[in-house]
């Protein structure tokens, strides 16, 4: 299997090159040259497979055996998911006859990004060790320096994915004092020698700007071989396809023998469109999914696209004087972060302006609506995506052709959920017959599932993806359940792993100003150091 860019470049990459490259040089995202079909007998053959078995089965359809053998793949996958606390890795729980939750938060950092990042870290290490094994003595070893910024909710998943990995260093910048104490502790209590938490005196946007400048600095980038582990990395999407298959089988095993589950809907709390895109691949491979439901918070660019066909940063249909109508969030008066246009919501991991992985879906929609032979259609799709993305870059908006919107509506529906609805949903599921405590991201999906269910046929099953443990977003959960006398956070939510976390040993490097040169200095002084050489905490 080879991979190419969504923007039409001719070049074809191996899986290894795709994973190590991340973003294509033309700005596009890598996609497989075709979507593989499932083996004829997959329903019977895969039925009793574990998460690991299914990972090997699904991933090997996308990775040539001469790149990673089945035995090596199994080792990588086993290692990656041995860090999960639940024997099913991603268990499926019943809420009512038609609604199930697929819990994706049983990994080391209690959020769904672990599923992909645990594997990505092991893939990086595997490729680097293999490359370095062929180097002669004295030849420079290949290394990667992973750099990223976090507002708190996702940095720890990258850190846990890369901790202790050979030939990889990771630097995660966070705004000092602006991250919740639990989230900060989740990151800074990882004291492996290759993990560097950088606390920048400034905002999250400052941290992001610094990371962008580092990647833009050609010389620095080449010297340190900077890498990102953001959600556009193909390996992340691929890893996430597995739980769609697993949950299909788990649903089947929980239903009476012989139940036909041709109508299964996946409801996915969506930000950068990576999680739900994995479901799209599963569907295209042959998993019998009727619809994928895109659930967004008030950062609703995707929900607006499925309503209008317009993909635009700012809602042009909003009444009022242009951009400020959206920025001020007419209904609830919440302020947008002035610089970026992102609205801060109770589900921060979905606070986005544009959804990076949506570009991959656009390519498939363009392909479907192109004409000619396979190769011609691929070229045409690349040209179309390239044009749309240029409009996005120049104008912040693009209006997609009607047939493209119609294609998108065949597989997806989308709903936008406000913060108020999110809080009400947490409360209502806690107070239902089978009490369930949802984190705010999961609650966005649960709320969307209820809306969509109103028009579902009676034999439709809904699987709602639960992307974070409620303890990770304790403020929102406690706020939603403040009026429920039977609710006790410490007893009902707090996992034992979080107890005492705040008192554990920490390692963090303080940077006194949001200054890219200071951060460069930190990276230069620490890359490649071995355990023992690094003092507990430093300051720049
Ligand atoms: C990242 C994240 C999401 C959104 O997933 P995308 O793949 O970006 O759509 C949802 N919930 C949580 C808790 C997340 O961390």
UniProtKB/TrEMBL annotation:
Domain Threonine synthase N-terminal stretches: 2-81
EC class: lyase
Residues modified to N6-(pyridoxal phosphate)lysine: 113
InterPro entries in alphabetical order: Ser/Thr_deHydtase_PyrdxlP-BS, Thr_synth_N, Thr_synth_N_sf, Thr_synthase-like, Threonine_Synthase, TrpB-like_PALP, TrpB-like_PALP_sf
CDD domains in the cross-refs: Thr-synth_2
UniProt-listed Enzyme Commission number(s): 4.2.3.1
Domain Tryptophan synthase beta chain-like PALP: 91-323
Biological process annotations from GO: threonine biosynthetic process
SUPFAM superfamilies per the UniProt record, alphabetical: Tryptophan synthase beta subunit-like PLP-dependent enzymes
Gene3D superfamilies on file: 3.40.50.1100, Threonine synthase, N-terminal domain (3.90.1380.10)
Gene Ontology terms, MF aspect: pyridoxal phosphate binding; threonine synthase activity
UniProt keyword Transmembrane helix, yes or no: no
Region called Disordered, residue ranges: 313-332
Pfam family, one: THR4_C
Organism superkingdom: Eukaryota
Pathway: Amino-acid biosynthesis; L-threonine biosynthesis; L-threonine from L-aspartate: step 5/5
Family, similarity comment: Belongs to the threonine synthase family.
Protein's UniProt name: threonine synthase
Lineage, highest ranks first: Eukaryota, Fungi, Dikarya, Basidiomycota, Agaricomycotina
Designated gene of the protein: THR4
């Amino acid at each position: 299997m080879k991979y190419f860019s969504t923007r039409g470049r001719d070049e074809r990459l191996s899986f290894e090159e795709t994973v190590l490259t991340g973003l294509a040089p033309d700005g596009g995202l890598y996609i497989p040259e075709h979507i593989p079909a499932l083996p004829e007998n997959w329903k019977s053959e895969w039925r009793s497979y574990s998460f690991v078995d299914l990972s090997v089965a699904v991933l090997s359809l996308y990775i040539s055996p001469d790149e990673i053998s089945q035995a090596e793949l199994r080792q990588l996958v086993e290692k990656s998911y041995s860090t999960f606390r639940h024997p099913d890795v991603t268990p499926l729980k019943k809420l009512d006859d038609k609604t199930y939750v697929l819990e994706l938060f049983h990994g080391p950092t209690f959020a769904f990004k672990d599923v992909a990042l645990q594997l990505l870290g092991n893939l990086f290490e595997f490729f680097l060790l293999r490359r370095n094994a062929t180097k002669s003595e004295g030849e420079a070893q290949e290394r990667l320096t992973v750099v990223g910024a976090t507002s708190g909710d996702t940095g720890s998943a990258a850190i846990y994915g890369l901790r202790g990995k050979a030939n990889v260093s990771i630097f995660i910048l966070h705004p000092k004092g602006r991250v919740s104490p639990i989230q900060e502790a989740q990151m800074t209590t990882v004291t492996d020698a290759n993990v560097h938490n950088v606390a920048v005196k400034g905002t999250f946007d400052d941290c992001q700007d610094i990371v962008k400048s580092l990647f833009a600095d050609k010389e620095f980038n080449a010297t340190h071989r900077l890498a990102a582990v953001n959600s556009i990395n193909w390996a992340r999407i691929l890893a996430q396809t597995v739980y769609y298959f697993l949950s299909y089988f788990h649903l089947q095993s929980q239903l009476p023998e012989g139940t036909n589950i041709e109508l299964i809907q996946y409801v996915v709390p969506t930000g950068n469109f990576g999680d739900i895109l994995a479901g799209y691949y599963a569907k295209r491979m042959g998993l019998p999914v009727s619809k994928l439901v895109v659930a967004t918070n008030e950062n609703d660019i995707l929900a607006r696209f499925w309503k209008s066909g317009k993909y635009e940063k700012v809602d042009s249909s909003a009444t009022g004087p242009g951009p400020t109508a959206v920025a001020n969030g007419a209904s609830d008066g919440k302020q947008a972060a002035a610089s970026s246009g992102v609205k801060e919501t109770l589900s921060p991991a979905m606070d986005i302006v544009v959804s990076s992985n949506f570009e991959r879906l656009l390519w498939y929609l363009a392909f479907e609506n192109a004409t000619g032979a396979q190769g011609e259609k691929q070229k045409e799709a690349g040209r179309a995506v390239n044009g749309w993305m240029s409009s996005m870059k120049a104008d912040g908006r693009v209006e997609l052709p009607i047939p493209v919107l119609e294609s998108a509506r065949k597989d997806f529906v989308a709903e936008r959920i406000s913060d108020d609805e999110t809080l009400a949903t947490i409360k209502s599921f806690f107070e239902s017959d089978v009490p369930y405590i949802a984190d705010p991201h999961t609650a966005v999906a649960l709320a969307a599932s209820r809306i969509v269910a109103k028009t579902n046929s009676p034999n439709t099953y809904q699987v709602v993806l639960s992307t974070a443990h409620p303890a990770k977003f304790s403020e929102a959960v406690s706020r939603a359940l403040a009026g429920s006398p039977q609710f006790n956070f410490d007893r009902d939510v707090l996992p034992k792993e979080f107890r005492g976390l705040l008192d554990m040993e920490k390692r963090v490097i303080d940077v006194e100003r949001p200054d890219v040169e200071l951060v460069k200095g930190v990276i230069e002084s620490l890359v490649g150091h071995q355990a023992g050489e690094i003092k507990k905490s430093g300051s720049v």
